[in-house]
Design a protein that fits this description.
Elements: H1 2-45, H2 52-69, H3 74-97, H4 105-127, E1 142-144, E2 147-149, H5 151-173, H6 175-185, H7 187-192, H8 197-223, H9 232-243, H10 248-268, H11 277-288
Antiparallel strand pairs: 1-2
Length: 298
């Protein structure tokens, strides 16, 4: 009888651990997408884009408009949201990168902070301060043995990982991706070898805009759409620093590590500790390994 009482308890603990790990992977996939968008802009242009969270927020609003107002099918919502994100990224490239190419890094940082406020105020002006639901993945939960996964969880992980895999293949194996890598390593040498630096900047912001729109679309069904949802960029920045801000694979792995750590801390320590873990990890990494877990010495 003693064994009969212990076995269900052990099984419950095992299932709870698996559910926490899956929830952490879901959150981590979103943090990884944010970290990826921040890193590719920083590597190619040396701009730390503090407005990236607001680009994510605008991507969520774009998705809301196409899904709820125009009532487009989900594949078209994805397509038009990504295109809108690309256009926004290119507009910011023209507003921030082009006029401030010869400005000091601090000037560019201030410009991105100003753009952050502008985008947030614009969202409040157009859509108001309230919350909007975006139930695009409301499907019957998927059953895997004794585990039940919601459509939000499954599709968020699958779509995020798929896009990160496609980006990695593009970044490593295509000519344009190799040009972006060369520019991030040494812009002058890349230019002498025939790489068109303005074109690389242009494409980098376009890709970052698409990633931001995708992230906003995936976050919206989980949190709702509201003007302050761009605060997720803080977690993305922490994930990027954790993995090494100069490393694309490091930023992705840092995002997943942070998501799992948050989920486990919230479940086994305290829910109030869940949002603190990102900052504790960030401080610890900055103290003991400033280049990040996968970063290189500069």
């Amino acid at each position: 009888m003693g064994r009969g009482r212990i076995f269900p308890s052990a099984l419950f603990r095992k299932e709870m651990l698996i559910q926490n790990l899956i929830g952490g992977i879901q959150a981590g996939s979103l943090y990884a997408l944010v970290a990826l968008g921040l890193i590719i802009i920083f590597k190619a242009t040396s701009v730390l884009n503090f407005a990236y969270g607001e680009m994510v927020m605008m991507g969520a609003y774009f998705s809301l408009v196409f899904y709820s107002f125009f009532r487009l099918p989900l594949p078209w919502v994805f397509l038009f949201a990504l295109l809108s994100g690309i256009i926004l990224g290119l507009l910011l490239e023209r507003v921030i990168c082009q006029p401030l190419q010869r400005a000091s890094p601090m000037t560019v940082v201030i410009a991105t902070v100003a753009m952050m406020g502008i985008l947030k105020s614009l969202a409040r002006l157009i859509w108001g301060p309230g919350y909007y639901a975006l139930p695009i993945f409301t499907v019957t939960p998927f059953q895997f043995f004794s585990l039940s996964l919601s459509g939000n969880t499954l599709y968020t992980i699958l779509i995020s990982v798929s896009f990160m895999g496609l980006f990695y293949l593009f970044f490593v194996f295509t000519k344009i991706g190799k040009g972006m890598r060369a520019t991030s390593e040494n812009p002058i040498a890349a230019s002498l070898m025939g790489v068109r630096i303005p074109r690389v900047f242009f494409l980098t912001w376009a890709i970052a805009g698409a990633l931001a729109a995708l992230t906003g679309l995936l976050i919206a069904p989980l949190t709702g759409v509201f003007p302050d949802m761009g605060n997720i960029s803080v977690k993305g920045f922490a994930a990027g620093v954790l993995g090494g801000f100069g490393s694309v694979p490091g930023g992705i792995l840092g995002g997943f590590f942070l998501g799992v750590a948050e989920s486990l801390a919230g479940s086994y320590i305290s829910t109030a500790f869940k949002d603190v873990i990102a900052f504790l990890l960030l401080v610890a990494v900055l103290i003991f390994r400033p280049t990040g877990l996968f970063g290189k010495q500069g």
